[in-house]
Each structure stands twice: as structure tokens, then as C-alpha cells.
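Notebook entry, structure prediction.
Reason for the run: the old model in the group folder had no record of what sequence produced it. Starting over properly, with the input documented here first.
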Amino acid sequence: MMCTHRPGPVVAPPSCAAAAGRRAGRGVSIVSAAALLAAATTFAAAPAPVAPDDGRPAETGSIREELAAALRSLQDPSMPADQARRRTESAFDAVITREDGGDIDLIRDAALALRIVRLVEGMPPATRAGLVATLERSPRLAWTIAFLARSDVEGTPDPAALLDRFRRERGDRLEAWAPLVAAICVVHDRPFSRRVNEQVTLAPDPVALLDYFTAHAGSMVFPLRSMPAETLLHVVDVTSSIDELRWALRQHRADPDIGRRFFDVGYDRRHFRTGEEKRVAAEGYTLENIRLYGGICADQAFFASSVGKAIGVPTAYCVGRAANVGHAWVGFLDARERPAAWNFDAGRYESYQGVRGTVIDPQTRRAISDAHLALKAVSLRTADEADRLLAHALVDAAHRLAPPPAAPRGRRGGAGRAGAAAPAAVADPRQAQALRFAEQALVRDSGNLRGWQYVTDLAKGGLLAPEEARRWADVVVRLFGRDFPDVQFELLDPLVGASGDARARESAYEALLRHFAGRMDLVAAIGMRQAALHAERGDLDGAASRYRDIALEAARVGPVALDALERLERVLDQAGRPDLLVPILRDAWERSPRPPRASDPFLAQSNWYRMGTMLADRHERSGNRREAAFIRQQLESRSGGGS
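New structure, fully documented this time:
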């Protein structure tokens, strides 16, 4: 059903008493976590706690006093910040290594204290003291920015300096706009820009950005006061000027259909055909000029995503590659859905259906999959603010107790390695407890990306025993049911890869085929894993048969069919039967839909065009030049002679 009015709050502001009542037995209270800062002054006159022989406070009361004392010391310019960090780390360790598994409220409070220390410890002493005092007066800002900051990601700057600027210049807005302030701090704590092919667009001043969103909050599609900071990251990562944002707001106020904005920009076919400079580049790269003069897919995606951010809709600039040429489209949080969900279909042409989209995380500046971004909508559906914060604390506990192996830079998901057996996992009681913390976190907030990454990183590193990997696969299905299939596939893929020997993995893939029935792109991706298993066992006939089935069944659903054909070619060559490829290629080509004549700039990326090219190449290699020429003539006639 179409939405004709600005929707209500995505997530209502937390009511601590109500939250605690709803979760009887879970005992979550944000008040106690936020009050930890105020407690620092309460304990000002208290004697120093007596620590046990190992140097760690043991009892709950003494741990809270130790945490409060560490935070209090941050306001003393003469006290070294690293001393506060060591004290909070020691207290955190004491909590998470308790035999009873730890008090959840205490885990949350200790994680908050440690994150606050890490947030401010690099600042000059006088500035540090002012920041801690500000956080003490602004509890919602304290736990929002503390749990949003990513000190665990190498190269991620500290947002404390920008927070201090907000404290000095916009101190009256910090608590009321805590999620918005926190999101701007972690995105714009260093210069932020976006490259759109030959163009580089720069973000406006962070304070001006805060002023823009607070001044126009009543005109936004989503309510910015109550939207989670993790989702607001994809609103505040704008790289258009304030004047451009105002222009976009005047033009598209309260219109949630961001997908239509992609097609507001006409396609610059002259540039596509000839490579001449785009008119918009010559006239000035602004949102108004992009709409006036047109562009290519990158400009369309940039325009749509920028307009969305200007009117308060979380958006993402998505890219994917179906061959040696990529494509860009827009993802956006669709307010017309109830509840809201990420939509990645606008501008995603047929040639790119089934292609895994990539977006840049505006906080870490690293590539993540569109499925990972979609997890943030899971949080909107399943978790309130108290649960989201507690989930972050529990994941912190898991990382502290048993850190996962470092993943190589740029690695995404489990695709491409799930067919290989994981090394044998070694039983580790600390890791077992860490996994219990991770599961507790994900039960409370199944959209916590760091929690899922913790588990899948263990699987990819060979640190999950096969039975544990299978159990976690069951957890994924139990928590998501039939919802969010793309998210589930990203999570299940590495878990199945670690679930045991080839026979166990084959059984798991058969279960996934049933689970994802109806999603041909995911079914085909699973089939690729099965074919790799056959090849791993030396069963070339089985691998060839599976690749053939994928190529024929998935000819209409994206480039996975082409990948299957390329791998089939290698397997048949290895088996000494290259003659079998041509009839399969022809069958797949004839099954794939023909694009409209000369109307698709991405004709050369379609399955039909690329399969035809592969078939023609194969005929030429076998000496059948007449058949190759006939096929190429059909390709050229469909493309209008290359015009």
C-alpha cells in the first residue's frame, strides 16, 4: 500500500520502565547504564575498592564502584587516561569471566564505561574533562555515541574531537538530538567525500549539517529524533551542499518513493556511445543540474540517494559487476512498507538481478554487502532501543573474551570459500562462553551485524566445530524464519562451509535448497557450492551436470548462469569432453530473454548477449566460422549495429 503521509516513528524513544516491564526476566534498564556516569560523582568520597589477589574487583558492588572511580578520574586532568582504561578493562574482564556467565546489567554497564573511556582517552586532559561532564549531563547521548563508535575497526578515527565541537557550538541540542549528533560524529569525524566516476563530491560542514536536519525535521519522511543512530548513518552521509539539500527538499518533500528519483535523471546516451564529456560535468555537478542535463547510472544513483538523504530517508549508493563493466543503483529504506524495509530494486536492471550489491559503510569507509545493510531494518522490526544497546554490550563481551581471527581486508561473506572444509576447531571454554554472549545478543537484536560477523568470522577462520556451525545455522533460521532471505544466505553460507565433511555439507546444501525455494538466484548460488563439492571429490561428471543445470535453469536470473558456464567449460576441458559445451551453450542462449532492440545501454551485459558471444567464440575456436558469423550478426542486429 502506498504511503501518502509521513509515517510514524520507526522506533519510539526508549521508556526504561516500560522496557523493563516488557522484558520481565531479562532485566534491561538503560537508566542504570546511563546513571553510571552520574554515579562517578556519587562515589567521589567513597574509599577505593579492595581488589582480589589477581587485581580484579570481584563483587558486583565493588565493580560498579571501580567503574565509577575510573570514569571520575577522567575528569581529573592530572590523571593519565590509560590508567582509567586499564581499570575499566580489568573490571570488564572480572564481569565476563564469572562462573555464572556474568550479570547482564553489569556487563552492559562495564561495556559502556569502557567504551566511554576509549572514546575520550585520546583528547587533551582539559577537553577530556569537559566531554565527560557533558556526557554525564546527557545520558542518552552518552550511551548512543559510546555504543556507535567503532574503536575496534583499525583506521577508524575517534569522533571525540567533533563531539567536543558540538559541545561548544551546539550544546543545547545534544541530548534532544542524541542519535543524530552521534551519527554525524562517527561519519564526519574526518573529511567525507564520494567519487561518482570522474566527479568528487564533498560533504558540508558537520555543524551546518546538524543545523539543516534539526531546522527541517518536521519536513522529513522519517522522524529523525527517534530513528536509531545506526540507521541515521545512511541519512547524514551526504556529500551535497546545504543549498542543494534545500533544493531537493523543496522539490521532493514528504515523497518516500526514492526509486522514482533514479529515473528522474535522463540517460546520457551520447556520452555512453561516444565517450564525450557529459553535459552535467561541464555545467557544474549539482543535484539540479544532474536532473536537468542527465547522466549515466552512477549519476542517477547519486541523485536518487542524495535526494533521499535530503528528505530524511536512509539511502545507499549501490554498485555491482555483472561482467567487466559495473553498474550503480540506489537502495533506500522504503517508508511505504510496514514496517520499513530496505529496497534495492530501483535502477537494478535485469542484467544485475541476482548480483550481490556492494555499499560503502559511511562509518568505517569499507565495503559491505547490501544484505548486511538490510540487517539494520531487522533491528527496526525486532528490537527496541534498550535491547539494541544491550546487544552491543554482549558482543563487546564476546570479542573481549575470545577475539575472532582477523579477516583479510576486502573479504565479504562466505561466497567462494564455503565449498572448502574448515580446519578442525579446538575446544575452548572461553570461546564457548563468548558464543553464548553472542547468542544472547542476537536473540535480543537479530539485526546486530557485529554479532553475526563475530560468529561467521569464527566459521571462516576454522574456529567453529562442525556441530557448533550446524547449531548456529539453526539459530539463523529460527531467528529469521522465512524473512530476509538475502541476509540469511550471507550468514548461512560460511556456516555451511564449516559444518563438517563433504557429506555433511552436501546434506546442509540440500536443506538450504528447500529453505530458499522460490528464489532462483539463491538456489543457483547454492548449486554452485554443490558443484564445487563434486569437483573437490574428483567427481567431474557430477560437477559438470550441476553446472549445466544451473546454466539452463538460471539463464533468466542474472550472471550466475554465465559463471556456471565458464566453470563448466573448465570442467569439461579437464574431463576431455570440450565438445559437450556447444550444445549446452546454445540451449542456455536460446532460453535467455532477448533485450529490447537498441534500447538498453547495458545490452552487452545481458545474459543473452554474453552467452551469444561465448557461443560465437567457441565456434570460432573449433573452426566453425560460418556459425560464429551468423551468431554475431544476430547480436549486432539486436544492438542496432552498435549505435
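Summary: The longest strand covers residues 326-334.
The old model has been moved to the deprecated folder.
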